[in-house]
Amino acid sequence: MTAEDAARTILNGLKAAGINLIATLPDINLAPLLHEVEADRDVIHVPLCREEEGIGICAGGYLVGKKCAAIMQNGGFFNSNNAIVTTLLQYHIPLLLLIYYAGDIGDRTFSTSGSMTEPVLQALGIRHYVMREPDDAPELIKRAQILAEDSKRPVALLLTKESLGRRASIKSL
Amino acid sequence: MKRFDCLGIIAGAATDTLVVTSAGAVTLEWNALRPSDGNFRVRTLGLCSSIALGMALGLPQRKVIALDGDGSLLMNLCSLPTIARMHPKNLVHIVFDNEVYEASGSKQTATATGTDLVGMARAAGIRQALWTHSVDEFARIVTEALNGHELFFIGAKVTTERTEVPPYPMDEVENK
């Protein structure tokens, strides 16, 4: 699947799960997905300056009835930890986190971030699932959103490079 | 100016408005003045403006007020360009600037040495960003903001004086 098709598949999965507010911060591997999010008229797209503010924006959206998702790199997840703990977890607020898994097996960048990602999620008690195939996106997103709403906690999907499809135009880093 | 006096003016002008209050004494003072299901108390320092932005985007037909502090906003300055970029016309962002981390031992914040939060808001792209210099002026601007249809950022330099009020009556999950 191309990156563009993967991006559309993931966004359609988010919309099918009822997501209607998406906060994002770019990573080059997320660029096609964010392009789709930006172009979509059905979802409110909030481009962020720092990921932690996105946790607050999504929490506020939830409080007034929106279904929210935040898309970021794992570095941004690390940036967001205080907000995740003292807002999402403390208030029992669900949020779907789509985290690009930089430093995953086979990746030539951010191996330290990659090594810390799942342990930190685990330490926070955040259920997380690794997505390796774009075809899996709709089902995984649907189930993750159900889990988030049922548990009233954040749930993370770790998006590996291959889950975001083949990139035609940009040489892999 | 005294923060409690300013809050009293907002309470008089904002009947059913959703109000998000920053971590700190402002939450307790506000809740004593206007107890309501429409109040949300923020526990993450800095996140007040972002949570209010999310509410404003999600409910564009309702006014949302953020009651922020200087220490809080300084921790999340990037919310200013994001608010400016999204430009919700139903958001009124009010900052009470007492130049100290009041809830954390009253050490000075950067506004004590000249950082101008209204100037930063304006530079971020919020056109209606202004300081108010008296309680009367604050009342006039808040009334204009609540009755209008425009994004506002309102600054008020206040004293560090706290008003004795009861403790917050609920925990976080009850507040949600």
Low-confidence spans of chain B: none
CATH 4th-level superfamily of chain B: Thiamin diphosphate (ThDP)-binding fold, Pyr/PP domains
CATH superfamily (homologous) name of chain A: Thiamin diphosphate (ThDP)-binding fold, Pyr/PP domains
Low-confidence stretches of chain A: none
Put the structure in a nutshell:
The complex is a heterodimer of chains A (173) and B (176). By secondary structure, chain A is of the alpha/beta class.
Description:
The complex is a heterodimer of chains A (173) and B (176). With 173 residues, chain A is α/β, with parallel strands linked by helices. Chain A has a single domain, classed as Rossmann fold, CATH 3.40.50. Chain A contains seven helices and six strands; from the N terminus they run αβαβαβααβαβαβ. In chain A, strand 1 (21-24), helix 2 (31-39) and strand 2 form a beta-alpha-beta unit. The longest helix of chain A is centred in the last third of the chain and has 15 residues, at 137-151. The radius of gyration of chain A is 15 Å and the shape is globular. Chain B has one domain (3-175): Rossmann fold. The mean pLDDT of chain B is 95. Chain B is 40% helix and 20% strand. Chain B has eight helices and eight strands, in the order αβαβαβααβββαβαβα. Chain B is of the alpha/beta class. In chain B, strands 2-1-3-4-8-7 form a six-stranded parallel β-sheet, with helices on both faces. A two-stranded antiparallel sheet of chain B has the order 5-6. In chain B, a hairpin with a 5-residue loop joins strand 5 and strand 6. The radius of gyration of chain B is 15 Å and the shape is globular. The chains are: A alpha/beta (173), B alpha/beta (176).
